[in-house]
Give the backbone structure.
Amino acid sequence: MLRLPDLRIGRLRVDRLALILLGAAVAATLVAALLAAALRLLRPGALPGVEVAGVAVGGLTEEDLRRRLTEMGRARAERRLRVVRPEAAGEPRESTSTTFAEAGYGLDVAATADEVMRRGRQANPYAALWDHLVAFGGAIEVRPEERVAATKAAVWARATARRLSVPPVEGDLRIEGRTVEAVYPAPGVVVPPRELAAVGRRAVLVGESEVTAPVEESEPRTDADDVDRLVAEAERALSAPVVLTRGGASLEISPEQIGRLLGVRREGDDLALKVRAGDLQEVLPQEDIARVEQEPQDASFSLVSGRVEVVPSHAGFRFAPRKAARTILELAARREDRRAQLPGEKVPPEFSTKDARALDISERVSSFTTYHPCCEPRVTNIHRIAGMVDGAVVKPGGSFSLNDHVGPRTEANGFVAAPAIRDGEFVDEVGGGISQFATTMFNAIYFGGYDFLEYQAHSYYIDRYPMGREATISTPAPDLAFRNDSDAGIYIDTSYTDTSITVTFYGNTDVAVDSRTGQPYNRKDPPEDCRVNRSLRRGEERVISEGRAGFDIVVERILVRGGERRVEEFFTRYQTEPRIVERRRCR
């Protein structure tokens, strides 16, 4: 037997044949690596013959490869999946469809492209060389990196399960007029979303076009005995009307109306009748409901023998559908005595008797009267505004604006055209003459000791009013406004005759008021305004207006409260009103 001599290297003995084989393997590996590297240089893109799920991508640059894979992923995402629910629990076969994308499918383009570009570039030179050799005439199949998004798949599965599931039929009633029809319970079919999501995931990953949905039978919670009992109760409810009473009014609900109101509610596994409170105001005529309702009555004041008395408030009553529904259901369960008092909601007044008494309006504080000729159009306006202010209440700390309280002076509000002063000129306007009421009220405020917020005197002095203690009013200004700076409320009473108007304030105040009117000063005589009238004879003169002198005046209001004396000055400047004459010729 031929033996090769041993080769000794130091203390190591190496078999010469093994060494030769090792060298050959190293050389082969080196050759394979060099050959694979050379082929990679000749094939910089994807290897020829590479396919992804049957789509040829060989030879593509990496950019083109990603574009091709994106198109492929979009096409696969648009494929449709039909989901079929089989026959079950007496329900016929049903189906729905969706796209792969809606079921959560997506192609990982980057990962798939990396796997394609890796072929022929593996770290193992033999594997890389083998891919290059196969690429000369064969096909290299690369599986696409496909994913199913769990959250999106779960959303799709829940929505699809809802569409395909048929809930069990619970016991119920159908009521038409006074006829009751039983609806007996029946099982349903449920598609469990979690199992459906798993079925859908497998289907889109393998490219299936149709799957069968998993199903479970769902039993109703009620039974036929429940329905039979409910039918008997409903027939008793529809046997006669029920009547709800309140005071002298009544509300009768006919059997047909009861039928429109009856419904079925579930209490656990049991069924019970209910009256749908939300339908009450639709089923019952509004005029019937209005007949039993009552608006709350605020407390008010009345003047009796010179004293202000409180007119008590009254709570209102409002129809309460929920309470009424419970009572109707209770009455409908009876065979006899189907009559009861109507429950409802008590509606408190906004201004109660207690609130009114707390205002402590107990005495007459001030009163003032002005006079006017009878029966002129302006008197109509004076009486109208007096009626609108009569009974007004001003709370402690509150304010009162005559313009805000009365509103626009229009014919629709009962005012008529009458002479008035506007911008210093006499004109006819709707509401003319009400400055007489403003002057009267001004003096009631003045002698009541209350705080003025806004007022304005007339442009010209009018001798029927006290000098320096009068006010005009117009829309939107000037206004007459004051603040109740006392601790008690104010009740305003107005009264009038054909020739006078009176404003009286009732309240409770500890202030004493005195007044002192100074002498007019800076007096200016009226200028003469001549107007040509050719119809007059030579030397003849016709006086149209005598005019008025202008002057300044100061009025002092002296307020005494708790021994403390305070003086307020009210300054007024009256303009001159021209003396107007007509002559044949004016110089």
Notes: Residues 16-42 form the longest helix (27 residues).
